[in-house]
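Review form for a predicted model. The reviewer records the input and the model, then writes brief findings.
Reviewer: anonymous (R2)
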Amino acid sequence: MGRELWSAVDGYICDLLVAPDQALDAALERSDTAGLPQINVAPNQGKLLHLIARIHGARRILEIGTLGGYSTIWLARALPPDGQLITLEVEPKHAEVAQSNIERAGLAGVVTIRLGRAADTLAELKAQGSDPFDLVFIDADKTSGADYFSSALDLTRSGSVIIVDNVVRAGAVIDATSDDPAVQGTRRLNDVMAAEQRVSVTEVQTVGIKGYDGFALALVL
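Model under review:
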C-alpha cells in the first residue's frame, strides 16, 4: 500500500479516461530529452486543470511556472478561440522547450511566455493595468509561493479561481521545525491564504504517480 499502488491506479485512470494525445506526449518526450526536471503534472492532473478551466468558463489564464509547457497545453486547450494564456518562466532553456511544444500543439496564437523572474513579471502585469485573469495556476518555486499568491490575487476579480500545486510536500507541511525551504515556503503560503479575507480556500491531499502531495483551490470573493 504505497507509491507502487498509487502509480498503478493512476495508470488505470489515465488509460481509461485520458486519451492518448500526440502533442502532449511529444511535449513530455521533448522535455525529457532536453533534460528538464520531470516535475510536470500527471496526465490526469492535467486533465483536471483543463476541466476546471472549462467548467469555470475561463477566457484569461495566468500560469506561474511553465517548465516544458505540458500543463500550459492542457490549460490553453480549455480556452475559447479568443482566449489568452500568459505563462511565466524564469529559465531560458525551459521557455525555449515550452515555446517549441506550444507551437507544435498549434497554440502559439493563444499562449504568451513571459521570460524572467515571476515576481518581476507579476509586478509588470499589475503596473501595465492587465485585465483580470479568470484562472491562475501556480506551480513554481515553493519558497516564493506566498508572494506569488498575493501578487496573483491582485490580478484577479471576484469569481476568479486560483490553484496552487504541491502544498502538502509528502506530509512534511505539518512540520513547523522543518529545515526544508520548500516546506517553510509552503507553510508561509498556507498562512497567507488562511488569513486572506478576499478568498475562500481549501486544500486536497493527492496520491499518484507523482507521489504524495496536494493542491489548494481558492475562490476570489
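Findings: The beta strands are 60-64, 84-89, 111-115, 133-138, 156-165, 199-208, 211-220.
Further findings: The chain has a mean pLDDT of 97.
Recommendation: see findings above.
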